[in-house]
Amino acid sequence: MLQLCDVHTYYGESHVLQGVSMEVKKGGIVALLGRNGMGKTTTINTIIGFKQPASGSIIFKGRHIETLPAYEIARMGMALVPQGRRVFPSLTVKENLTIGWRHVSGSADSYNLDKIFDLFPLLKNRSKHLGNQLSGGEQQMLAIGRCLMTNPDFLLLDEPFEGLAPAVVKEISFKINELKNSGLSILLVEQNVRIACRLADFIYVMNKGKIIFGGNAAEPQVEENIKELIAL
Fold first, then answer.
1. Would you call 215 helix, strand, or coil by DSSP?
2. What are the residue ranges of helices labelled H in 57-104?
3. Cβ neighbours of 212 (radius 10 Å)
4. What is the pLDDT of residue 106?
5. Distances (CA, A) of 106 to 73, 112, 160, 197
6. 62, 3 in Cβ contact below 8 A?
7. What is the pTM of this model?
8. Which of 57, 134, 138, 186 maximizes the CB count within 10 A of its CB?
9. CATH entry 3.40.630.30 includes domain 1-77+153-232
10. How far is CA 11 from CA 50, 54, 58, 128, 225, in A?
């Protein structure tokens, strides 16, 4: 579904991504872990087209996208749930969801308002509330729902559990697993090693703009090994 090969990205003179290579298989969840400032969000921004790489290749569904603008990549079926949620505060829940709806012809399983409300019943109860009247957990559900309304094949999740209560983390984790089971491919950027290992099929660890580990999440002792790497 997605492959990065030797990707280098700069911000001015700062060499942020230093030869990043990784892949996400169709219908799977891959987690990208690491401390703050290690290049995780820059990786997301480079994939989605907010920042073009200086060199290297990014292949999405068999097509090179490293030179494409973000809107073209989105039209190909990629969607981003950004860090901090970024819902529209002055729009209602319903308006936030419908503003980006993209119809997929010939698909009986495409997302619409009713399907999002089935996935997140709390949003249905809050459908007339403004974005800034929601709790952090509700805003995160809304941000995910808004992306799903574009009917993507591939979902980028940047720190989706940040600042959420444990009960909400558990609920959203369950929903993300549901999305995976429906066939959606997901790249999850996260700092919580335990959550990532529970959700993901494959784990990458990033340090100072480089991938320093890649392995199956189900491998014995992988959680403890990753914690040691992140602590470096």
1. strand
2. 70-75, 93-98
3. 14
4. 55
5. 21, 14, 31, 35
6. no
7. 0.87
8. 186
9. no
10. 12, 10, 18, 41, 31
Q: Which residue has the tokens 């949003």?
A: 123
> Token pair of 38, please?
């290690």
Residue 226 pLDDT: 84
Q: How far is the C-alpha of 128 from the C-alpha of 122, rounded, in Å?
A: 12
What residue has token string 């999850």?
188
pLDDT along the chain (232 residues), means of 10: 96 93 94 90 94 96 95 93 85 88 67 88 89 88 91 91 87 89 91 86 92 84 79 63
CB 86 within 8 A of CB 56: no
Q: What is the pLDDT of residue 112?
A: 85
Cβ atoms 31, 204 nearer than 8 A: yes
Q: How far apart are CA 214 and CA 33, in angstroms?
A: 10
124/118 Cα distance (integer angstroms) = 8
Count of C-beta atoms within a 10 Å radius of residue 215: 13
E strands present in 2-139: 2-11, 14-24, 29-33, 55-60, 63-64, 78-81
User: Residue 107: what pLDDT?
Assistant: 56
Both tokens of residue 157?
Answer: 């999740």
Domain positions in the chain are 1-77+153-232, 86-152
Bridging pattern class, strands 2-11 and 202-207: unpaired
Phi and psi at residue 208, to the nearest 5°:
50, 45
C-beta separation of 203 from 197 below 8 A:
yes
